[in-house]
Amino acid sequence: MPATIYLVPGILDRSVHAWWERLGWAVGNATARELEYRGTKVQLKSRENRVVIQRQIERDVKQLSHVARAACVDDLVDQLAPDGCYEFDRHFLDWDQAKELHDAGLTVGSHTIEHPILSRESASDQRTTLQTSKRVLEENLHIEVPTFAYPNGTRSDYDETTISEVARAGYSYAVTTWGPPASSEDSPFEVHRSLVGASMHPLRFAAFIAKRLLYNV
């Protein structure tokens, strides 16, 4: 089955961490009993309580710029004082593994340098991350990278400036995480995708695919 993997060069070379994974690890392994967040003391109780807190924080910090979000997550991790050491290398590909996947037949696309939410960034910062991520992937993997995936990918996570900069950077098309099944009527820079989670039952997945195939008949 054809597949595309969208890669973040900053994660591949370990110059940045995936903030959502680091935050989840810190919340799950926190030794602190409370957290000061947005001027309020938040109690860290059961596992379920911590999951709710983590998801709320994730929603909130996605509204911030990349720089502000990184500072916020650093502060939260310090407060949480997690037990142990986050084993970053266990969870993410490196350059050698990315090359193995490409050699095995997967297409490679770009997903920015550091996974910012693009609509929260300036036009110049968007331009830099879009152009640089494409160039770095092509130079390191010795391939062409024609496609891009918007980080987070909902309609509010990119804007008209983003779309313009994606085209300017030389991508042929870009994919989202919202909307109806993709059709020939879509803009090449807003190709809709449907999310499929690990918890989806195989029968539901089969029905999901069949429905979308019928949509395009």
From TrEMBL:
PANTHER family, per the entry: POLY-BETA-1,6-N-ACETYL-D-GLUCOSAMINE N-DEACETYLASE, PTHR34216
Record carries keyword Transmembrane: no
Subcellular location: Secreted
Domain of life: Bacteria
Any one GO molecular-function label of the UniProt entry: hydrolase activity, acting on carbon-nitrogen (but not peptide) bonds
Family annotation (Pfam families): Polysacc_deac_1 (PF01522)
Keywords of the record: Hydrolase, Signal
Name this polypeptide is given: Hydrolase
Organism of origin: Gordonia otitidis (strain DSM 44809 / CCUG 52243 / JCM 12355 / NBRC 100426 / IFM 10032)
A biological-process GO annotation: carbohydrate metabolic process
Domain NodB homology: 1-217
Cleaved signal peptide residues: none
PROSITE patterns for the chain: NODB (PS51677)
GO cellular component, one term: extracellular region
Alphabetized InterPro entries for the sequence: Glyco_hydro/deAcase_b/a-brl, NODB_dom, Polysacch_Deacetylase
